[in-house]
Amino acid sequence: MSERPLLPADALLPDPYGAHEMPIYQTSTFVFEQVADAAARFAGRSPGFVYSRIGNPTVARWEARVAALESPHVPAGALAFGSGMGAVSAAVLACVSHGDHVVAVRPVYGGTSELFLEVLPRFGVAVTQVRAGESGEALEQAAERPRTRVVYVETPANPTLDIVDLAHAAAVARAARARLLVDNTFATPILQRPLELGADLVIHSSTKYLGGHGTVVGGVVVGRDRELLSGPVAAMRKVLGAVQGPFDAFLLAQGVKTLRLRVEQASQTARRLAAELAQHREVAWVRYPGLADDPGHEVAQRQMSGFGAMIALELRGGAAAGGRFLDALRVCKRAVSLGCTDTLIEHPASMTHAHLSAEERAAAGIRDGLIRISVGLESVEELERDVLGALERASPPRRGAAAPSPSPRGGRPRAASPRTSRS
Ligand code: PLP
């Protein structure tokens, strides 16, 4: 952990020249006046930095900003990583040893699935995955297994937008004496603060909303338990070496200043777009927690202060129609990643979750036709024109209304509309 992570952001290292912004300390190492100074700094008895894999002033400023966002009322610390996966891996590995058991929801981000399905088992850590949004009982049962050390949750989940009840997950983790780890990338601390609901560690891919401009890859782990964060999590970062560089930390610290504005604006646009898509004759179903009949709506309303800017949907023509739709877009970008100023659209089965087997995708509720939209900051009119126009261009001339696609568990099935179907 940076040397003084529990201080509020603005108390951290005032710049000797009074710089308004934390300068970029582009240095790998720090000079000691005397050998005794080095010993004191290494032992943590005196403030200051020793080496940028362990801590750096620009990175520390970024960490303090994120900690203050996730935990505005209670002191917390944060550790920045070179990527979201660096943060996920270090947080999980910090909490488990050979012979332990992890309970995780599914779906989760594809890289996190890889950690659970392929990496942890090789080191003797068993993982049980439970379908996100399913009855809480499945989570409770899975956590009864001896040596359960971690309950891992992503909500809203990537890419299905399933919602997990965080207060319930915290109770399950407490009963099992396990840690609750929550990936809060989709919601951001503007809309959801898992530490306040009982999470031990909150994880972000700061590549996404926190940075917000699609210029940096980064990750962060936030927690209030100083021993956990500055002990095993910091040790894991040190040995994995998955650190954030000072220049990237500087860019992230700039980007996060507009986090609230960006998230609020994009969420408003997403809500309107999701409602329109849910009514569109070419759309089989939409998942967006802000829709009143979304299966996650009630829980989302309880634990989030807004519903975010991510939408999942499937077209009535399935994967083939989805491909045509993506190719017909002119403003939205066909790209993975999310939480950027630009609207990004992707096809999880062939992109972010392509390395999962068809069975694993099916078990996680990731259908072949699922399309994920990360709504950006374009005007709502421009996005509507692009998305509705692409749907029009991508739909084949129809002789009769197609049979509705079966909805995923809890999705919104769309019957063919006699009003709009062409014969
Ligand atoms: N967590 C979530 C929810 C993600 O969507 C991603 C990436 O898309 C990650 C973690 C991994 O982040 P990164 O790509 O920064 O390693």
Could you give a quick summary of the protein structure above?
Helices cover 37% and strands 14% of the residues.
Plain-language structure description:
The structure is a single chain. Helix content is 37%, strand content 14%. The strands form 2 sheets. It has a 7-stranded mixed β-sheet with strand order 1-7-6-5-4-2-3, sandwiched between helices. Strands 8-9-12-11-10 form a 5-stranded mixed β-sheet. The N and C termini lie far apart (65 Å). It has 2 domains: 9-258, 3-Layer(aba) Sandwich (Aspartate Aminotransferase, domain 2); 259-394, Aspartate Aminotransferase, domain 1 (Alpha-Beta Complex). It contains 14 helices and 12 strands. Helix 5 runs parallel beside helix 6 (166-175). It has helices at residues 35-42, 57-70, 84-95, 110-122, 136-143, 166-175, 188-191, 226-240, 246-255, 259-279, 297-303, 318-328, 358-364, 380-394; strands at 77-81, 101-106, 126-131, 148-154, 179-183, 201-205, 219-223, 283-287, 310-315, 333-334, 344-346, 371-374. The chain is of the alpha/beta class. The site of pyridoxal-5'-phosphate has 15 residues, from helix 3 and helix 4.
What topology does this entry show?
Layout lengths: L34 H8 L14 H14 L6 E5 L2 H12 L5 E6 L3 H13 L3 E6 L4 H8 L4 E7 L11 H10 L3 E5 L4 H4 L9 E5 L13 E5 L2 H15 L5 H10 L3 H21 L3 E5 L9 H7 L6 E6 L2 H11 L4 E2 L9 E3 L11 H7 L6 E4 L5 H15 L29
Parallel strand pairs: 2-3, 2-4, 4-5, 5-6, 10-11
Antiparallel strand pairs: 1-7, 6-7, 8-9, 9-12, 11-12
Helix pairs in contact: 2-9, 3-8, 5-6, 10-14, 12-14
The protein binds pyridoxal-5'-phosphate (PLP).
